[in-house]
Amino acid sequence: MRFTLAPAALALCATIGTAAAAGSTYGTAYIGLRGSYVFTDDGSTTGTSGFNYIQSYDDGYATAAYLGWTLTHGIRFEAEGGFRSADIDSVLIVSGDAGLNYLPGDVVDVGADVQAATVMGNFYYDFDIFEGQFVPWVGVGAGAAHVEYEVTDPLGVFGGNDDAWIFAYQLMAGITFPVSDGISITASYHYFSTEDFDRTGATGEVFKTDLTQQSIDLGVQIHL
Question: What secondary structure does DSSP assign to the chain, as a single string?
Answer without folding.
Answer: -EE---HHHHHHHTTGGG------TT-SEEEEEEEEEEEEPPEEEEETTS-EEEEEE--EEEEEEEEEEEEETTEEEEEEEEEEE--EEEEEEEE--TTTTS-TT-EEE-EEEEEEEEEEEEEEEE---STTS-EEEEEEEEEEEEEEEEEE-TTSSS-EEEEEEEEEEEEEEEEEEEEETTEEEEEEEEEEEE--EEEE-TTS-EEEE--EEEEEEEEEEEE-
